[in-house]
Every structure is written in structure tokens, then in C-alpha cells.
Amino acid sequence: MEAKLQEPTLRVADHGGWTELTLNRPDRLNAFNEDLHRALADALNAAADDACRAVLLTGAGRGFCAGQDLGDRVNADGPLDLGATIETFYNPLIRRIRSLRKPVVCAVNGVAAGAGANIAFACDIVLAARSAKFIQAFAKIGLVPDSGGTFFLPRLVGDARARALMLLAEPLSAEKAAEWGLIWKVADDTALLDEARALAAHLATQPTQGLALTKAALNASAASSLDAQLDLERDLQREAGRTPDYREGVKAFMEKRPPHFSGRRP
User: Fold this and answer.
1) Along the chain (266 residues), what's the average pLDDT of each consecutive run of 10 residues?
2) What residues pair up with 126 in beta bridges, in sequence order?
3) Structure pTM?
4) Which domains can be identified in the chain, with CATH numbers?
5) In angstroms, rounded to a whole number, what is the distance separating the alpha carbons of residues 228 and 220?
């Protein structure tokens, strides 16, 4: 009898210019264990290559991600140092997503709970299936929101809504999340992946370095004064103006034709 091949915890698909990453523990609602963390870290590091110009992150099965796999915690001997887990896995993951020099699209195909929700919010453009729900589930088990949740939520929806979402741990529908500005848009369940793939494919044809610099400016904005942000815009615009895509964009505009961006660095 042949042994059944074990599915990888992360599916990686190269679409020629952009990469699709699928969390693949559907029996656990794609909850994170160490193997999935390491696989996703390796995939995001590989996606930093200039040949990849956009990333799509989604989940297999009926949910996007249920956060941490609590099954890994049940049989632990003695008190756990959850801060070590955050320092080793979750914080580096959020930093990788935010600092990646290309757009990261997230397609939330079902429940996004705990760290799963906050990982989605760390991405650049988030689409969600109409049936999806976002849950700050930490209060249900006596924990503090992590993976950037206490940073992202107040900035996305304001302090009052962020506090209620975190202290009550009530599910938030995809449509309400879009209405509140937590995500970009809602798609019908059957259309979600097609829309997300089309968006990633489109972004992979755009001026990658300019998008990366825009992302850097947005990342700095929350902690910046106006004067500091104006100076940063000046510096980043100087860098953008030296890219081949800027030259191509201007040339295409003058010639009244669509631009053909290469995504190359100066």
C-alpha cells in the first residue's frame, strides 16, 4: 500500500511575474504552526527577488487563517513564553509583509481570526469573500492582540471601533469591514480568487519600484510629522525619478500609448 504524500503547509505558485501563496492547513482553518511559519517566511524571502513583482496571499478550504494553532499549546510543560513565539515568528512575518518592495494582495476566503485577521490587515490591498468574517479573538482566551493589531486597527477604523472589536471579540462581517475601511472591497465568494488573481497580475505589470517607494512612504506616515513626511516624499520622489519606469511612463504619455513597465531598479 502506497503511503499518502503529505500536502505542504504552504502552496507556492509562480505565475510568471507574481507569486501566489496559499496557507494550506485547511483541516485547522490554516492556523499557524512552526512549519507554516517557516514555509511562509521562506516564500516571502524568495518573493523579494526582482523577478517577482506582486504577491497574493490566501488560504485553502473554508477559512483564511484562524491565527495560532492552539493544539500546539495544549500539552506544553509549564508556563509558555508566548512573547518568544511572537518575537520569533509573528513579528518578523508582519515586518516582511510591510517591507516587501512590491504590493501584497490578500484574498480572505473565510474566517480571519486572531493573528490571521491582523496578518491580512498588514497586507497592502485586502479583498474578502462576502461570507468572510474578521475576529479579534484574543479576548476569548485571555490574550492581547498581536501581529500588529493594536497598531493597524486604531489607524484603520479609529480608537472607539478598535477598542470594541478587541475587547468584545465579536465577528465583523466582510461588508462591514469594507464599509469601515478595514479592507479594500468585498467580492462574491465564487469570484474572490479570480478577482484577487487579476489584481495581482495587474500590479505585476505596473512600475514596481514606484509602488515600492509609495509603500515605504505610507509605512512611515503613521509615525511621521508633516515636515518629516514632506522631506521623505522629496527623497523618495528623487529615487523614483531615476527609475527606468518613470522614463517609460513619461515617454508613453507623450507618445499617447500604454506604458510597458519593466519594474527594474535604476
Assistant:
1) 73 98 97 97 98 98 96 66 95 98 98 98 98 98 97 97 98 98 98 98 98 98 96 98 98 98 95
2) 106
3) 0.95
4) 10-203 (3.90.226.10), 208-254 (1.10.12)
5) 9
